Amino acid sequence: MDIMVSLTGSPVFKTLLQWLVPVSILTFLVSLGLIPWIVGRLSETCFLRFSSTGASPQQREPKTFAALVFLFLRNILGILLFLAGFVMLFLPGQGLLTILIGLLLLSFPGKQKLIHFLVRKQMIRQSLDWIRKKRGKTPFQWPELDE
User: Fold this and answer.
1) How many other CB atoms are found less than 10 A from the CB of residue 121?
2) Residue 7, pLDDT score
3) What is the C-alpha to C-alpha distance for residues 80 and 127, in angstroms, rounded to an integer?
4) Residues 90-109: pLDDT tens digits?
5) CA-CA distance, 112 to 51, in Å (whole number)?
6) What gap in Å lies between CA 94 and CA 85, rounded to an integer?
7) Which InterPro entries does UniProt cross-reference here (predicted)?
8) Any idea where the domains of the chain sit in the sequence?
9) CA separation for the pair 14, 79 (Å, rounded)
10) Cα–Cα–Cα angle for 91, 94, 96, rounded to 5 degrees
């Protein structure tokens, strides 16, 4: 019991709480606005290309400076969303959905298999379709589950 009292009374713990509370509130509020907007802008067939084999569609190499800048910014946003989603697993917010959206934006080897693993979860499918319904969009077309 003395350990808990000393931890909660320590300046490090107080500083950590002073940072976690605003970060928690900020990530929650941003996820409330950003996640539905992104999910509403996705194509209803965007998850069909993710198969259990992890075979990725032909990726084109960026040819212009503008395409490289766009790729860089998209990956930065993906990293930020992924990290925010990870934080939201422990704090209030839509953690798994935010992680999934972050992964969709990132470019890395193994992305196809990881997204396929996540979209096999019924809870994620239902949440994404619910968001689309609230935005007046048609539900996603999902790949067949291969148990």
Assistant:
1) 12
2) 64
3) 21
4) 776 678 888 888 888 888 88
5) 7
6) 7
7) Uncharacterised_PGPGW_TM
8) 27-55+62-134
9) 28
10) 100
